[in-house]
Amino acid sequence: EGRFGNWLANANDWNLSRSRYWGIPLPIWRTEDGKEEIIIGSVAELKSEMAKALEAGVLEKDIYADFVVDDMSDENYDKIDLHKNIVDQITLVSASGKPMKRESDLIDVWFDSGSMPYAQWHYPFENKELIDEGKTFPADFIAEGVDQTRGWFYTLHAIATM
């Protein structure tokens, strides 16, 4: 009922990616022919794949060499940058030895905004029981303009029901 309800009733499929400069880089690397790809799930996995690419000769330098995976300190995280202009410099190697470049699209910034309540709790990797058992929810009340309905609020709703 109301503006959001009416919008939901007529919602179209939502493409998660965008062809822009600002946003979260999709962690997908593909060969030029598109026949092989890898989806990276963590910085640890990215570093592991970079080591393989260095060994295979498709990557010249480990730009994250000084980053320690399990060190959560601010000083350590100052050593890593996962923005588009940096990760696009990383070439990985496929299982057959071909170079792989990162998918150039980005995750829609509304998805980033909508995932914030879960990301701030590092859900589901930490604090899972608190959220799953209804003991807490990262955002009980949000005061925003009606213009946020189709972007931020829809994403909050979509992620909450996935």
Describe this structure in words.
With 162 residues, the protein is an alpha+beta fold. It has 2 domains: 2-16 and 108-161, no CATH class; 21-106, no CATH class. It has helices at residues 2-9, 43-56, 74-77, 84-87, 109-119, 128-132, 149-161; strands spanning 17-18, 24-25, 28-31, 37-39, 92-93, 99-102, 106-107. The strands form 2 sheets. A 4-stranded antiparallel β-sheet has the order 4-3-6-5. A hairpin with a 5-residue loop joins strand 3 (28-31) and strand 4 (37-39). The longest helix is centred in the first third of the chain and has 14 residues, at 43-56. The model has no long low-confidence stretch (mean pLDDT 87).
Tags for this model:
alpha+beta, four-stranded antiparallel beta sheet, three-stranded antiparallel beta sheet, 162 residues, globular
Summarize it:
This protein is of the alpha+beta class and 162 residues long. The chain is built from 7 helices and 7 strands; from the N terminus they run H-E-E-E-E-H-H-H-E-E-E-H-H-H.
Task: Map the helices and strands.
Blueprint: H1 2-9, E1 17-18, E2 24-25, E3 28-31, E4 37-39, H2 43-56, H3 74-77, H4 84-87, E5 92-93, E6 99-102, E7 106-107, H5 109-119, H6 128-132, H7 149-161
Antiparallel strand pairs: 1-7, 2-7, 3-4, 3-6, 5-6
Shape: globular
Number of domains: 2
What share of the residues does DSSP label as strand, in percent?
5-15%
What is the overall number of helices? 7
Determine Rg (CA atoms, Å).
19 Å
In whole angstroms, the N-to-C terminal distance is 21 Å
- Report the order of strands and helices: HEEEEHHHEEEHHH
Rounded mean pLDDT is 87
